Amino acid sequence: MPTGNGWRFLAPGENQMTVPHPPANPIASFSAELRSLAADRTIGDLAGRTGLLTETVKLLLAGEQLFSWEVTSVFLDACDATPHQWRPRWERLAREKGRRVWSRKYDPVGAFPDPDSARSIDEFVDLMQKLRVHAGELTYQTLEDRAKVEHRRLPHTTVNAVMKKRTRPQPDLVEAFVEACGLPLPERRRWRMKWMELVAQGQGDHTATINGAQAQQTVPESPSPPIPIVSSSAPLAESASTADSAPDMPPPAPKRLIRRVVLGVSGAFLLLAGIGVGRLTAAEVVETPILGGPPYSLIQDQPLSLPYKLPMSRDWHLDLRLTLGHTPEGGLQNCTYYGQMLVRIERPGASPLEYKSLLGHRNLTLPRIPIGRTDSMRIVVTFKVVGRPTPALDGPCQLTLDLNGSTVRAGE
């Protein structure tokens, strides 16, 4: 019998086991079925069959987000399933999440190309072409259209010139290209870093050589369970066992996760992915990207401290680009309208440099900040609410901070 508060009394003969439960998170349920398909295959085995990183496979099976059809199809094929039989269900999930469902020429099967196998820039571009074909022979115009949905620029004319090796792409274009082919963040970062490594080796170190060191990361702080920690040799059946109950939660930003820097107890500086030691001379101008990767978590009134180790002690300039986003728990418009970013750049033995964004602006660009002669620096960002929001904010603002596009420059 129904009651006014939505509960009902058990009918005669019913018990708690026979009363229907609310439906589970559909994405978590979908991931659970993918795990059952994988049977006793290990994470490492699945990574080898799909050509994906073990990190990507773990995220796919965690049940917290719906991956692209390209990734899903390749995973199904690796589990000896028939992708087109799963396509209608994937499309329903995608539409429920407000995702664009693209038409396809065929369902991708077999392992994705491995960017780390490239030994030269030409070989890397050949692998980009293979990735485009593998994803369904996507036209250059389709790639551009897909990139626009993710708020990226990927002109089809530029892609055409790159594929014909008439020009070399910038790292951002490589990343946008890989994303348009359906690959998630860990894979995009992998392709971008390999490209920068090849450019550094093939152009006389006009960019610093990548050494692969990365700041430690944690999973996003959210109500959902953490991504299972599974070794690449462990059986899958013993890994992500809790994903079935993961709540249905929108992603914090398109195809992105939130990252936090974990500082070591010793206080040593963390090496940032993309910064390495190259052959630097006084006549060279070196532009070293700061790979923002996933956005950092930025909570109101809690300073976010980002320490960086530079390749060597010399004069540096910093081009800093900061963009605010939001987490599922915290809004963006109401917070940024009444708040601003306070930026402090610290260098050993020098006075700190301080900047702030305009009130109500979610972007801050600071070109050519003179860092001076140093081999390390620390960027501290704090978000402050300086007005009185109406309606009042429900708790502190929980935002994200994106550093993509920031670079450190050296040279004369």
TrEMBL record:
Annotated spans, Disordered: 213-253
Compositionally biased residues, Low complexity: 229-247
Source superkingdom: Bacteria
The name this protein goes by in its record: Uncharacterized protein
Species assigned in the record: Acrocarpospora macrocephala
